[in-house]
Amino acid sequence: MSARATVDHSERLPATKLFPWAGAGFSAAANFIILSYVAIYATDTLQLSPAIVGVLILVSNICNAVCGLLAAWIVDRSPETRWGKARPYEFAVIGLWLATWLLFSTPAGLSEPGRLIWVFVTFITLNALFDTFLRANDSLYLARAFSGRRLFAKLTTRSGLITTIGSMIVSITLPLMLDIAGKSPEGWSLTVLIFSVPLAIIGMMRFVFIKEVNTTSDTGAAPVKISEIGTALRADKWIFLLAGVQVAASAVTGANVAAYYFRYVVGNLSLLGIMAALGVIVLPAILVLPRLMKRWAISQIIMGGALLGLLGSITYAFAGSNLSILTVGAILTALAILPISYLMTVMVLDLASYNEWKGQRRLESTLSTIVGVAGKLGMGFAGLITGQVLAASGYDGSKAAQETSAVAAIVGLYSWFPAFLFAVIFVLIMIYGRFDRTILPQVHDDLEALTRDSEVPTGPTASSSRPTA
């Protein structure tokens, strides 16, 4: 393995880098918000069966998972170009938004099989191709554009604050505009187009303004082999715990039940946008995350969040259309998701450092993609469960009001299902805590010592003892 390159460990984060990086995150988050309406668009506007829609969501996300692993291998093997190694994949932003608009522009005149094929093809294209490469390149891009674990956390949390503010704007305005569009195919297509054009431009800001300036221990090494990936993963069992956490966390948001809940239980879809405005309450918590990291391990922070999510989800079960109770649940669940959303990348890079410490390839893209694939599978299975439960309850998207059984199913999917998932997150991250609190500090100490030694122009290189993990 080649020696690590000299890097600047300063924690300074200029606005000229913060805002472009946040622009890419905002674009991706906005795309996720828009895609959360795919299910209700397919069942209510396109008049497709919820059971079939659930299967479609699962299959498309499985395709995404398979392609995600391939994309990670491609990114890790990518040669250096004039733009760097990870940066060129940012062009996928344009394809992502084009495919999103096409998805929500399904021709209403097509037959039911035709509508299914259109939705399936566009959904798979944006998920399995464009979104996959953007997720596969993200951690590697971060590691080559910035350096230092604390700076990683500062960047992800501060850009996360900007992303959250931007996402709130989308979360507020989108349901208001969709409520006006009703169940009109033309209205949905125009609404998504209005969002897609500026968000594609914002998403490309990172490519334009942020260059790859660092190298990693893998730089200059031979292209990654499949056998090397297998060896590294067999030695790094912790990544599978993070993948499990991501499955559960993505299923919480991927069930896409909120739109159904506010349309049929609360009785007003536009109120979902007003509820999103309450996200301003949790914004200070994003800035607190780096401070919390000085006192607690990331695993402990996520465990605390999972308990809040469990409590908030149970609150939904008794809320009905009471906005005050719904507000309490929304704040608690939002706080629960924050540490997973903004610190997962830091944990992935921790595991890349662990691989290096073990004498293996870092494999940032592969590790990031495993977590990303897990997230897609979580959303896929959540979509399948939502579709099957709604179908079994007698849900009919052509009706203005649903039967009691369908309403009960929507309430259960909105409350008890995520409560179970937060309990799973708590257990998995508690197990991961052994690495986070006992092994990781030694990893960082040894690698920092190795970096200092490599910066000395003459003299022998000291070796660090590495205890067996």
The count of strands amounts to 0
Helix vs. strand class: mainly alpha
Tally of alpha and pi helices? 18
Architecture (CATH level 2) name: Up-down Bundle
H and E order = HHHHHHHHHHHHHHHHHH
What's the alpha carbon Rg, rounded to whole Å?
22 Å
Distance between the termini: 20 Å
How would you state the average pLDDT, rounded? 83
The coarse overall form would be globular
CATH topology: Growth Hormone, Chain: A
Overall CATH class: Mainly Alpha
- Biggest β-sheet strands, sense, barrel: none
**Beta-strand percentage?**
under 5%
Total count of domains: 1
Describe the structure.
This protein is mostly helical and 469 residues long. The chain is 74% helix and 0% strand. Helix 14 (298-316) runs antiparallel to helix 15. The radius of gyration is 22 Å and the shape is globular. The model is unreliable at 1-9 and 458-469 (pLDDT under 50).
Summarize the structure.
Helix content is 74%, strand content 0%.
Blueprint of the fold:
Elements: H1 15-35, H2 38-45, H3 50-77, H4 92-103, H5 112-145, H6 149-181, H7 185-203, H8 205-209, H9 226-234, H10 238-254, H11 258-266, H12 270-276, H13 283-295, H14 298-316, H15 323-357, H16 364-392, H17 404-414, H18 416-454
Helix pairs in contact: 1-4, 1-6, 1-7, 3-5, 3-16, 4-5, 4-7, 5-16, 6-7, 6-12, 6-13, 6-15, 10-15, 10-16, 10-18, 11-17, 14-15, 14-18, 15-16, 15-18, 16-17
